[in-house]
Amino acid sequence: MTKQNQSESGLQVYVDHGDLIPMLQQIQEQNGYISSDSIQEVAQTLRISENEVYGVASFYAQFRFQAPGRHSIKICLGTACHVKGGEKLLESLQRELNINPGETTADGLFDLQRVACLGCCALAPVMQIDDQIYGRVTNTRLKRILESYA
Ligand code: FES
């Protein structure tokens, strides 16, 4: 999508929103998340409003707006995991950690993301912490797993 803006010198500037997503992806790759300072910088660079940048970025689940935790938890909500209780597992995680997907715990220990499939559906419900896969996770097991990272 191309948008017409007026530059400080009065020239018409055409902003290609196709530039926005790659810029945000690059920032997230470098910093692990999109900070409010980054949103401001991108807005100035592309000459669009910060609201517009945030509006586009928040539409995509891939972008985070908080610094990641020391350990990243991915909870699978793909079909197999959904059928085997993935949603309940997510609710338990949210309760235990007191955060929602896309957020980081107050102590910075964990961040939480939901994903579509971790590629080991036979182990449903599945979650991943950093590079470690945990299959057939129950609520009791979940608490023990979290405690092992404390
Ligand atoms: S659906 Fe969960 S691992 Fe594939």
Key traits:
alpha+beta, Arc Repressor Mutant, subunit A, Glutaredoxin, 4-stranded mixed β-sheet, two-stranded antiparallel ribbon, about 40% helix, about 20% strand
Explain this structure to me?
The protein is built from six helices and six strands, in the order E-E-H-H-H-E-H-H-E-E-E-H. The chain has 150 residues and is α+β, with helices and mostly antiparallel strands. The chain folds into two domains: 58 residues, Orthogonal Bundle (Arc Repressor Mutant, subunit A), CATH 1.10.10; 77 residues, Glutaredoxin (3-Layer(aba) Sandwich). It has a four-stranded mixed sheet with strand order 4-3-5-6, with helices on one face. A hairpin with a 2-residue loop joins strand 5 and strand 6. Helix 1 packs antiparallel against helix 2 and helix 2 crosses helix 3. The longest helix is centred in the N-terminal third of the chain and has 12 residues. The termini are far apart. 21% of the residues are buried. About 5% of the residues have low confidence. The structure holds FE2/S2 (inorganic) cluster. FE2/S2 (inorganic) cluster binds next to helix 4.
